[in-house]
Amino acid sequence: MSQTVARSVRAQSEARSVPAPSPRRRRVSVGRVVTFALATVWLVIVIAPVYYMVLASFRGQGTYLTSNPWLPRGGLTVSEYGTVFGAGLGRYLVNSVILTTVCIVLTLSICLGAAYRIVRRSTRASAVSFSILLLGLAIPIQAIIVPLYLLVYKAHLYDTLFALMLAMSAAAIPVSVLVMVNFLRDIPRELIGAMLVDGGSEWTVFRRLIVPLSKPVLATLAIYNGLNVWNNFILPLVLTQSNSVAVLPLGLTKLEGQYAINVPAVMAAVLLSVLPLVVLFVVMRKQVMRSLGSVVLR
Amino acid sequence: MALFGVFIVVPMLGAVALSLFRWNGLGTPHWAGAQNWIQFARDPLARQALTVTAKVVVLSWVLQTPISMALGLFTAGRQRYRSVYAALYVLPLLLSTAGIALMWEALLDPNFGGLTALSRSLNLGFLQQNWLGNPSLTLYVIIALIAWQFIPFHTLLYQTGRRQIPDVLYEAARLDGASPAQMFWRVTLPQLRYTIVTSSTLIIVGSLTYFDIVYIMTNGGPGYTTRVLSLDMYQVAFQQNEYGYASVLAVVLGVVGVGIALGLVRFSGFASMSSQQEGAA
Known about the structure:
The complex is a heterodimer. Chain A is mostly helical. In chain A, 77% of the residues lie in helices and 0% in strands. In chain A, helix 5 (89-120) runs parallel beside helix 8 (161-185) and helix 5 packs antiparallel against helix 13. The longest helix of chain A has 32 residues, at 89-120. Chain A starts with a helix and ends with a helix. Chain B is mostly helical. Chain B has 15 helices and 2 strands. Chain B has helices at residues 2-18, 35-42, 44-76, 80-89, 91-94, 97-108, 114-122, 138-163, 167-175, 180-191, 193-208, 212-217, 229-238, 243-267, 270-274, and strands spanning 21-22, 30-31. In chain B, helix 1 (2-18) packs across helix 14, helix 3 (44-76) runs parallel beside helix 8 and helix 8 runs antiparallel to helix 11. The longest helix of chain B is centred in the first third of the chain and has 33 residues, at 44-76. Classes of the chains: A mainly alpha, B mainly alpha. The interface between A and B is large, with 87 and 91 residues.
């Protein structure tokens, strides 16, 4: 599926760039050089810290302190990667994968269904729930974290992955439903009408028409929400406690507490935590970049 | 829907209700009326947190908006190297805040950190600072790190926004003999209105509630110089167990956040603009 999405995205961007020959291209002006220089400065600002981290992760604890940390010389090793796996990083990784997968599935199925109802039935109830959702869009999670904690605690869900699944999915719902509603409104009513006339039920329309048409939007939302869940810090911090249910961002800070002076180990852990996202990004770069930009700009 | 109701709407109301009680999490909550709110009005720590937060919000906007816009316009260009740059610019977006915080802690360590090493080998003395322990410096370091984390995202927004401007407008301007500067002020900037509002709203509300990097890197210190409002709230709630008073801070956070968001959106005529964007994403 990701391939077809990527292909359609590419087709779109090519179509857009066809009627635009750039007549300015050949001139090398001072402006161009300055632009290039400034852009490169920013590139260094972005890349240098990451380069430092990668290099540091391949040091031993001793060589990190003695060698020049910016140069790839003087004994590189992968031993600290082993250290962090021994310290429970694998557990955190598994937790993060489970949490993110469940949240994506839960959010997407809820928001697709809800958006379809909101678009298809213009009842008062659905209009009211839509405006409450829009309000939820503006409420920062920090503003509700205290009652949320008490709620989870009273429901005996404190310190479980399940609580995180529910809370994070709920937090992702407003923006997802909004994007979905905007998309579904653009589907011509005649198309739905025609299917109903042909004897299809609402459920058939939903399954045969809405779901396939929505695939690109669903992919966008999956990426956007997935990234947010994967990297969220405050909810795991407040709603969980034990190592056994810690997800990666929280786990990283736990590792840092354990290995405060072993910088290479901490760096290795950070890199391992970002590895799945880097792989995802390399495989579907265009889709990822488009998703992030389009969710909020829509 | 029920999920959203239970986990977002109920806590929203719960925060307002709790702010009227005194409660340490155990036993029964005591009715406190306006007591928590009076405490808030007199609390020097809360005032400090508000000042720090206001600084973070204003400086974040001032720092992030021009850089993001410039980079967004740059990456929207068609040269091949620009798309390579654009892909690399996204890197910080993949890192979690926790990862970013730990990475920069290693870089900024005054004894063994990357910047100190750099200052030694390049003889750049100013790079050797107690970045996270100097009361007059640390807040700005934090603001810079927040910018480092979020500029990539806003760059993507401006890139998307710029690409949605029809080329016809630029061709017309060129035929009329407009200079590049004129094109920027008369075509690009007005056409980016919607993007600017969206990005600004996200920057402002985001930095208003910013928590992660501050919590991990400084925990409000040195002193209280980086104790932002959401951190203040976190500590009052989960370290001092004063859930009632913490809810006052939460309500303030929520009301100011929603207020700013709605204000910006109203003020800029978001509703009338939205139809123009239809089908664009």
